[in-house]
Design brief:
With about 250 residues, the chain is α+β, with helices and mostly antiparallel strands. The N and C termini lie far apart (about 55 Å). It has 4 helices and 8 strands; from the N terminus they run H-E-E-E-H-E-H-H-E-E-E-E. The model has no long low-confidence stretch (mean pLDDT about 90). It is globular and about 60 Å long. The longest helix is centred in the N-terminal third of the chain and has 23 residues. One of its GO terms (cellular component) is endoplasmic reticulum. It comes from Eudyptes chrysocome (Western rockhopper penguin). InterPro entries: Alkaline_phosphatase_core_sf, Sulfatase, Sulfatase_N. One of its GO terms (molecular function) is metal ion binding.
């Protein structure tokens, strides 16, 4: 690695294809993991991220470099090669990649490192968005976001520095393609997070939590169920979206 801009501000964007099919692993990492090709890819991604961090450290840039590591969606459940499942695992969260509303498709890791400014080991349980990266980078560069259009992102810096306690997002809208599938509301005075699903994918098989019959869940048509009234969940009490609320169970 060679830093031409070592003494000036720089933006390095690295888009890794690693936990995405087809799983292309270099020979050095084949068989490194107990979890097949998918695990091998994670091992290789981990090594690549480590190489980047090592260079930043060796160049003396650790305390002045803001690093953000995230995924653009949750693990794909339907990915396979022959009979081998190649997709990720989304823990307690329902659904996965390609599903506009379920938490398993939109809840992703967000890991930040900036030793000169942010204390290590801090966990922030506030909802942010990948749209927030743009205003955050503009803020760090001393710029101003465009004023001639609506910018949906919010700078992450006040939240990360602890100068505010809550995310700038009160509402978040979750689309599948151009179709609105769900909306969440972070009720600030109580900390409760409500989520309403207007449409959800039809799982195949029904109890699988995925669309194995189609290979990926569709966003509209006969592959989705429309809900009127919407399916309502209290994510602060039910993060796995297992118990839809009704007027009888939740009068509020």
């Amino acid at each position: 690695f060679y830093f031409r801009n070592k003494h000036r501000p720089f933006l390095l964007f690295v888009s890794l294809l690693h936990v995405h099919t087809p799983l292309v692993t270099t020979e050095k990492f084949l068989g490194r993991s107990r979890h097949g090709l998918y695990g091998d890819n994670i091992e290789e991604m981990d090594w690549m991220v480590g190489m980047l961090l090592d260079v930043i450290d060796k160049e003396g840039l650790k305390n002045t470099t803001f690093i953000y590591f995230a995924s653009d969606h949750g693990g794909s459940l339907e990915a396979h090669r022959g009979n081998a499942q190649l997709g990720g695992w989304n823990g307690i969260y329902k659904g996965g990649k390609g599903m506009g509303g379920w938490e398993g498709g939109i809840r992703v890791p967000g890991i930040v490192r900036w030793p000169g400014v942010l204390p290590a080991g801090t966990v922030i349980n506030e909802l942010t968005s990948l749209m927030d990266i743009f205003p955050t980078v503009v803020h760090l560069a001393g710029g101003a976001v465009p004023q001639d259009r609506v910018i949906d992102g919010r700078t992450l810096l006040p939240l990360l520095r602890g100068t505010v306690q809550h995310s700038g997002h009160e509402f978040m809208f979750h689309y599948c393609g151009v179709f609105l599938h769900a909306v969440r509301w972070h009720q600030k005075d109580s900390g409760t997070i409500w989520k309403a699903h207007y449409a959800t994918p039809v799982f195949q098989p029904e109890a699988s939590g995925a669309c194995f019959g189609r290979g990926i869940c569709p966003c509209f048509g006969d592959g989705v169920t429309h809900h009127d009234p919407p399916l309502l969940f209290d994510l602060s009490q039910d993060p796995s979206e297992s118990n839809p609320l009704s007027a009888d169970t939740e009068p509020l």
